[in-house]
Fold:
Amino acid sequence: MYLDEIVAAQKRGEAKGIPSVCSAHPSVLEETLRVSNAYGAISLIEATCNQVNQFGGYTGMTPWAFVNYVRAIAEKQNSRFENVILGGDHLGPNVWQNEPAGPAMEKSREMVRDYVQAGFLKIHLDCSMRLADDPPHALEAEVVASRTATLAKVAEESSDGHLRYVIGTEVPVPGGATAHEEGVSVTRIDDARQTIEIHRQAFAREGLGAAWERVIALVVQPGVEFGDDFVLPYKPAKAEGLSRFIESQPLVFEAHSTDYQTRPALKELVRDHFAILKVGPALTFAFREAIFALAMIERELFPESQCSNIIQALDKAMVEYPEYWSKYFHGDEAEKAFKRRYSLSDRARYYWVQPRVQASLERLMKNLRERRLPYSLLSQFVGRTDLRAEQVVGWKIDQVLETYFAACGARAVQATLHPKR
Structure:
């Protein structure tokens, strides 16, 4: 399996990694497959427990539906679905934190079973969160490991021994920080060592020795983070000890919240054995940038009565349904309005599926599809000329994806759809 090749290469001292695209956005997934093909690379596409679960998640998709969704995109792109690895991210009781452990874990078991039976191969198990009847403090490491092992047992019972596992979690919770931070603490070596050992023991108690051999990565905090108005860059010196530690283990690290890191920083992460690089909001942020740029062009080409008003439609949906951004954005009303549009956390990504937003987006693309986009307006609002409207979207997303593939050691074997000037 390709993930095993990544681990083996790292253990040989090679700076080889793989981008992990954690998104359900169709444009992001289309470009992921397109860029993967251009690099002759395997695509790793992941869904989180919040996005996709047995109840639909915020995408409305079950695990089976997500697999079919990605398969359909691959067919549309003339890509081989066999070159896609599907992963489940943060699989555990995160969605049901407000419920007691009994029902929350039962729902988690059902979710893991569905993911595995649907065809997901890379399974990140995360039981680090407190549940409603847990003591009012951080969970004991043994409790986290025990719950994780029970989910691994369900996964093994639903598979034929081909799964690859990731354990551990990062702080804060998925999706970016909820407040501005000046720095985050790199995971302590002793904590990483304890996490591995306690999980190994928990797997053994469940009779999962063979499954433990297929645990390929540990999620730790390398010192990177982003929030609505900040990015904390990777500083290799702070993670030097952690990097040396993993060299003595049969695992690599998985780094979350790597969005908006520079290409040199991403290359340093891969060199330091953070071989799986999670990215999500940076990709939908690029999509949002493209749509806003196209909206500016539309405004210059069409009378107001014919315009899509996509920016206004998106903000109206966010105001009407604030549950996906309200705990992330702070300040007065003007500050919140600014963050709804331009936050690096890109909470807007939850709203593109709203029917009225979709209708406005379709009108925008229809308007611009029927017009040649002037050189001057593309130069002004996009920074790249000679592109059609659809290519503007693809080009913006590609800039992020190509940074990740290059940082992971991949080399383009064919021209991308949007060659650079």
Observations:
- The longest helix spans residues 281-301.
- The beta strands are 18-22, 43-48, 84-91, 122-125, 164-168, 215-220, 225-226, 231-232, 252-255, 274-279.
